[in-house]
Amino acid sequence: MVAKDALVVENVEKYFPPAFTGWRALLQPFSRLTLRALGGVSFRVAPGEVLALIGANGAGKSTLLRIVTTLLLPTRGHVQVAGFDVVREPARVRRQLGYHTGAEGGFYGRLSARENLEFFAALNNLTRHDARQSIAHVVELLRLGAVLDRQVRTFSTGTVHRLGLARAILHAPAVLILDEPTRSLDPLAAAEFRRFLKDELVRQRGTTLLFASHTLAEVEQLAGRVALLDNGLLLACDTLRGLLATAGAATLEEALQKLTGPPQVESIA
After folding, report:
1. Would you state the pLDDT for residue 220?
2. pLDDT value at position 20?
3. How many folded domains does the chain comprise?
4. pLDDT by residue (tens digit) across 110-119?
5. pLDDT at residue number 1
6. Residue-range definition of the domain harbouring residue 226
7. Which of 12, 55, 163, 250 has minimal CB crowding within 10 Å?
8. What is the CATH number of the domain that holds 46?
9. Rounded to two decimals, what is the model's pTM?
């Protein structure tokens, strides 16, 4: 199936039940969905495009990424990845996706990097032959050869991040989803990580990239367009230049302040 857009988000809403304590918490699954995380978000991402999600904590960025990656169901609305619906065709969607977060864990610390990648290759239905080829390729791309047969528990944070990205691209996904990918990295490691994303994945392989970040310099460096979320609502989705013009601002930080107003109390991420 060929889709015009790599990613389509149409009128996506997500509501959660209120948080209760004590005996009322037992009834939470039956409570009305009144806490809004997303309120009718819509945008499209073309193949090979890079779109950044920005906004304060609680704006709805992570919730939206979890819906795109089939980890959460939307309350209303539709999401398609490479033409496949995240609710009706989640298995097909997952074959098109890679997902990596800045709080990345999920590795087996006593296993080597190679053993971890072999395990996740099997979960992605790669044959042994394809898995060996893919592992060799991502290890070379991300310069993991020196640590490939070491236990993951001995790795630095930066190396774990590179291994996490290797896992995310192991099956050559058409769309890569990143949630604050450089949050725990030092400046040099973060710069190298961004260089790899831009030069190797987007330019060389044509990967579509959707990522959330609080690092505005990272957004300016990577994104072709920027989607600004505030309290679950999409305030703007435009190029950096267009966003600055709309806000009448000279910098992305200034545009953020003008379009969202004073900082709000954190709600749902």
Report:
1. 93
2. 52
3. 1
4. 999 999 999 9
5. 41
6. 7-260
7. 250
8. 3.40.50.300
9. 0.87
Maximum distance among all alpha carbons in the chain? 55
Given a cut of 50, the residues of the chain with pLDDT beneath it are 1-3, 265-268
Q: Is residue 28 part of a domain?
A: yes
Residues 6+ apart with CB under 8 A from 154: none
Contact 230, 259 (CB under 8 A): yes
Query: What is the rounded distance in angstroms from the CA atom of residue 269 to the CA atom of residue 251?
Result: 25
| Separation between Cα atoms, residue 60 and residue 146, nearest integer Å | 39
In a domain, 87, yes or no: yes
Phi-psi region of 74 (alpha: psi -120 to 50; beta: other; left: phi over 0): beta
Which tokens belong to 143?
């310069």
> What pLDDT score does 72 carry?
94
In angstroms, rounded to a whole number, what is the distance separating the alpha carbons of residues 232 and 222? 23
- 1 lies in some domain: no
Q: Which position has the token pair 């009322």?
A: 24
Between strands 50-54 and 208-212, the pairing is parallel
Cβ contact 175:208 at 8 Å: yes
Q: Is 268 a member of any domain?
A: no
- Nearest by Cα to 51 from 232, 240, 204: 240
